[in-house]
Automatic annotation (TrEMBL):
<feature type="binding site">
    <location>
        <position position="178"/>
    </location>
    <ligand>
        <name>3-phosphoshikimate</name>
    </ligand>
</feature>
<feature type="domain" description="Enolpyruvate transferase">
    <location>
        <begin position="17"/>
        <end position="430"/>
    </location>
</feature>
<comment type="pathway">
    <text>Metabolic intermediate biosynthesis; chorismate biosynthesis; chorismate from D-erythrose 4-phosphate and phosphoenolpyruvate: step 6/7.</text>
</comment>
<feature type="binding site">
    <location>
        <position position="180"/>
    </location>
    <ligand>
        <name>phosphoenolpyruvate</name>
    </ligand>
</feature>
<feature type="binding site">
    <location>
        <position position="104"/>
    </location>
    <ligand>
        <name>phosphoenolpyruvate</name>
    </ligand>
</feature>
<dbReference type="InterPro" id="IPR013792">
    <property type="entry name" value="RNA3'P_cycl/enolpyr_Trfase_a/b"/>
</dbReference>
<keyword id="KW-0028">Amino-acid biosynthesis</keyword>
<comment type="subunit">
    <text>Monomer.</text>
</comment>
<dbReference type="InterPro" id="IPR023193">
    <property type="entry name" value="EPSP_synthase_CS"/>
</dbReference>
<feature type="binding site">
    <location>
        <position position="132"/>
    </location>
    <ligand>
        <name>phosphoenolpyruvate</name>
    </ligand>
</feature>
<keyword id="KW-0808">Transferase</keyword>
<feature type="binding site">
    <location>
        <position position="179"/>
    </location>
    <ligand>
        <name>3-phosphoshikimate</name>
    </ligand>
</feature>
<feature type="binding site">
    <location>
        <position position="357"/>
    </location>
    <ligand>
        <name>phosphoenolpyruvate</name>
    </ligand>
</feature>
<feature type="binding site">
    <location>
        <position position="326"/>
    </location>
    <ligand>
        <name>3-phosphoshikimate</name>
    </ligand>
</feature>
<feature type="binding site">
    <location>
        <position position="30"/>
    </location>
    <ligand>
        <name>3-phosphoshikimate</name>
    </ligand>
</feature>
<feature type="binding site">
    <location>
        <position position="180"/>
    </location>
    <ligand>
        <name>3-phosphoshikimate</name>
    </ligand>
</feature>
<dbReference type="InterPro" id="IPR036968">
    <property type="entry name" value="Enolpyruvate_Tfrase_sf"/>
</dbReference>
Length: 438
């Protein structure tokens, strides 16, 4: 966890002079956009993606698929409305080089796709991507018949020598460090000769809603998937081989990126409306309705969207975040401003995210005068009177948005490298100042 000297620009986080009152249109979900791109690329016919997220992670995914020969064209959608991508599948071809940046979805979802290509596909990325776990995907693909060169580190950089097809079949993995290992194998599973049966053998699996998202999206394009929830064995997912349909999919707003805006209502005792909040979704961000209500707000799903209202009080919380780990930085920011302590549990695997998020949150909140300690699997946060200072982000988009939430309540907070929000929300600074009416 080191500060990147190349990004020493400081952004004065706006301080809220009163209760916010705003409607914020949150761009599309990263997790849905990148799954939809992969599934559309593997389909037997062209498909449409409407309102896709355009951010570093999704542009890297689109760029990688284009490098493999997939057509991804700008369009306006079949009904003439809205921005869209038309995805035209084709025989996947190497040689190609894929830049994964620091996108977990790209580094994990694409090596299985590359096994289906003809030729060598080289994967490389940001320095941090070399440290993020990938062994579950590499080992599983080898067990299923793939040829991969990875310098024996079980991590990036690596080359997948695609043979145009993969046997597939049953495989055991330990996905306790990332649910994305399971999602990765399932997404390409319909195109493996024998499909795939993934058995998770390790300790608790994080981010289950993201695995449900994978399963739902596979079923929506015609795949047959058996899951523990559909009467199968615990920790076993089975995908039957078969052709995938090209669909017309509208991407939901990114509910995890709605988090800082809902937090703004909570922290300032204001009201924020997020239009197009889905009534039913597998996105983990939907859990914020419950978590931020317990922390002092209230919400209502209306025709206008989700209306979230702060009460003026912020309460601490004791919560297991293993299912919704990506919400941790934003919850920690609110907890640091609460009227009682918080314990955030079940998120040891966050040490292997964009940065070591537990260490980064502890250090940065404490440098503003906070009292945070790391536990084996989370954080204890005892609210203290905070003061201004530099909030470092360690190239982590969710550190930047967490710092902005603290800045609403604490004068003089400066976010180092707010541009890192481009990973999933390039519009963040403008949306934030727009929400505040500036
Ligand atoms: O599949 C996905 O889209 C994601 C799964 C989760 O990963 P982990 O299980 O590695 O935490 C989540 O944290 C990440 O932001 C997105
Ligand atoms: C963990 C995250 O991203 P990634 O998809 O890179 O794992 C995140 O967005 O919080």
């Amino acid at each position: 966890m080191t500060v990147n000297p190349a990004h020493s620009t400081l952004w004065p986080a706006p301080h809220a002079s009163g209760a916010v009152a705003a409607t914020v249109h949150v761009p599309g979900s990263k997790s849905v956009t990148n799954r939809a791109l992969v599934l559309a690329a593997l389909a037997a016919e062209p498909g449409w993606l409407r309102r896709p997220l355009r951010s570093r992670d999704t542009l890297l995914m689109a760029g990688a698929l284009r490098a493999l020969g997939v057509g991804i064209e700008e369009g306006v959608g079949p009904d003439g409305s809205g921005e869209a991508w038309r995805v035209i599948p084709s025989g996947l071809q190497g040689p190609a080089t894929v830049d994964v940046g620091n996108a977990g979805t790209v580094m994990r979802f694409l090596p299985p796709v590359a096994t289906l290509a003809d030729g060598a596909i080289r994967f490389d990325g940001d320095p941090r991507s070399y440290e993020r776990p990938l062994n579950g995907v590499i080992d599983a693909l080898r067990a299923l018949g793939a040829r991969i060169d990875d310098d024996s580190r079980g991590a990036l950089p690596l080359t997948v020598h695609g043979g145009g097809a993969l046997d597939g079949g049953p495989v055991e993995i330990d996905a306790s460090s990332s649910s994305q290992f399971v999602s990765a194998l399932l997404l390409s599973g319909p195109r493996f000769n024998q499909g795939v049966e993934v058995r998770h053998t390790g300790s608790a699996l994080p981010s289950m809603p993201h695995i449900r998202m994978t399963v739902d999206m596979l079923r929506a394009v015609g795949a047959q998937v058996d899951t523990p929830e559909s009467g199968g064995e615990p920790n076993v997912w089975r995908v039957t081989p078969g052709a995938l349909l090209g669909r017309d999919l509208t991407v939901e707003p990114d509910l995890s990126n709605a988090q800082p805006f809902l937090a703004a209502a909570l922290v300032t005792g204001g009201r924020v409306t997020v239009p197009d909040w889905p009534a039913h979704t597998t996105q983990p961000g939907d859990k914020l309705r419950e978590i931020f209500t317990e922390m002092g707000g209230s919400c209502e799903l209306t025709e206008q969207g989700l209306v979230f209202t702060g009460s003026g009080s912020i309460h601490g919380i004791d919560v297991d975040l293993s299912e919704v780990g990506e919400l941790t930085p934003g919850i920690a920011a609110v907890a640091a401003l609460a009227d009682s302590p918080s314990t955030l549990r079940g998120v040891a695997h966050l040490r292997l995210h964009e940065t070591d998020r537990l260490a980064a949150l502890t250090k940065e909140i404490n440098e503003l005068g906070g009292d945070v300690t790391e536990t084996a699997d989370g954080l204890h946060i005892r609210p203290r009177r905070l003061h201004g200072g530099i909030f470092h982000t360690y190239d982590d988009h969710r550190m930047a948005t967490a710092g902005a939430v603290i800045g609403l309540a604490v004068e003089g907070v400066q976010i180092e490298n707010v541009a890192t929000t481009a990973k999933t929300l390039p519009d963040f600074p403008d949306l934030w100042t727009g929400m505040l009416g500036n």
